[in-house]
Write a sequence for this structure.
């Protein structure tokens, strides 16, 4: 990654030199904490999706739409909307505050590994794609978090991000 | 027209008239002579009086100058301070002040203050030139007011007074009437629905959630450390 190119010091030191956060405040977050944050986010996403799907189903039942003929279409549209909702959820939060609601609760934040800043939307989208890739091989893409010096998973390595402890406030 | 009288009467009257005129003339002449004779004496007396007044004025001025000089010397001398200190320390000063306050002097001063609107004039003047505003600002900004309030609040007398007020029957009655009033409950409703209070309650709720999350964070980070140690041990990697 470019954060160590020509510089053996970890990103935390560079963040400190940039005057953003003291190096002593930076702590890379581990698998369990991040897993809990992700579970909270998944619960929020699914809760919203269930409420919306229930509302749509109620509306369709009232409108007497022949659902049998529309099942495939509704499933496809629902899947696309769910994917868009999930992608939008993570990309929006990662690229604005660096924290999803679950991350906020667990007080962790996603930052660029090179300069410690909040990542841009494209990078956030790449990270989300990496998240899916990491999950596909039976979640093996998350195992590097246990061994990497900065606790990065596959998606972090792909997007050049780190997950660190967020400051209070 | 002359009355019909005799010649003898006429002669007698003529002589009588001439004698009286002569006497008048003699008196006038004597007076003039006397006055002329007294004039030097009167001038001498007048000059003497002027001299006496001048001498007395000069002596008075000398005496005043001498008295003021003596007063100045007395005021600057250390004996004066000592004398004042002793007088103030003695019962005489207290007695004098007590008598002054006890007597009609205070009433007279108060009447004059009211009659001549002294207080009003002073206040008007102070308000006009901004002295009161400056003084109030200085008092509010300075630490003195805070110290005074702190001293008053910490004083046992105030504590005793507040205790008496709280324990008095009047306080109970006031509280009972307050609780019975409809306005109080309207006010309570307004306050309870105010944004500040609802925000505070929400903050408290967040505080509780944050407390729960804090506990969860601490446990998850311990779990992180344990999981990493276990994984590294399993793969025979050195600990972090």
């Amino acid at each position: 990654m470019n954060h160590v190119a020509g510089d053996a010091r970890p990103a935390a030191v560079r963040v400190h030199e940039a005057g953003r956060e003291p190096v002593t405040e930076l702590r890379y977050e581990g698998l369990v904490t991040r897993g809990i944050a992700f579970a909270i986010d998944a619960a929020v996403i699914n809760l919203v999706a269930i409420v919306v799907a229930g509302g749509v189903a109620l509306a369709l039942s009232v409108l007497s739409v022949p659902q049998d003929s529309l099942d495939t279409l509704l499933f496809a549209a629902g899947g696309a909307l769910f994917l868009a909702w999930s992608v939008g959820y993570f990309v929006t939060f990662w690229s604005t505050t660096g924290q999803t609601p679950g991350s906020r609760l667990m007080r962790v934040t996603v930052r660029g590994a090179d300069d410690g800043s909040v990542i841009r939307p494209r990078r956030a989208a790449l990270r989300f794609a990496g998240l899916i890739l990491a999950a596909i091989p039976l979640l093996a893409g998350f195992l590097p978090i246990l061994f990497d010096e900065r606790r990065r998973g596959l998606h972090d390595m792909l997007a050049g991000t780190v997950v660190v402890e967020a400051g209070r406030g | 027209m002359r009355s019909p009288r005799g010649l003898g009467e006429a002669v007698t009257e003529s002589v009588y008239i001439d004698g009286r005129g002569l006497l008048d003339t003699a008196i006038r002449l004597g007076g003039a002579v006397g006055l002329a004779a007294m004039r030097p004496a009167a001038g001498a007396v007048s000059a003497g009086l002027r001299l006496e007044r001048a001498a007395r004025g000069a002596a008075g001025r000398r005496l005043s100058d001498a008295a003021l000089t003596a007063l100045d010397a007395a005021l600057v001398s250390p004996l004066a301070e000592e004398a004042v200190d002793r007088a103030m320390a003695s019962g005489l000063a207290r007695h004098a002040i007590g008598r002054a306050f006890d007597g009609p002097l205070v009433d007279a001063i108060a009447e004059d203050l009211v009659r001549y609107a002294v207080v009003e004039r002073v206040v008007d003047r102070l308000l006009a030139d901004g002295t009161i505003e400056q003084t109030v600002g200085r008092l509010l900004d300075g630490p003195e007011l805070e110290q005074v309030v702190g001293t008053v609040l910490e004083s046992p007398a105030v504590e005793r007074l507040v205790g008496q007020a709280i324990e008095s029957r009047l306080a109970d009655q006031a509280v009972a009437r307050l609780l019975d009033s409809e306005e109080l409950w309207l006010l309570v409703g307004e306050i309870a629905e105010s944004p500040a209070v609802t925000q505070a309650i929400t903050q408290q709720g967040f505080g509780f959630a944050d407390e729960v999350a804090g506990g969860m964070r601490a446990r998850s980070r311990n779990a992180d450390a344990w999981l990493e140690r276990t994984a590294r041990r399993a793969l025979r990697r050195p600990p972090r």
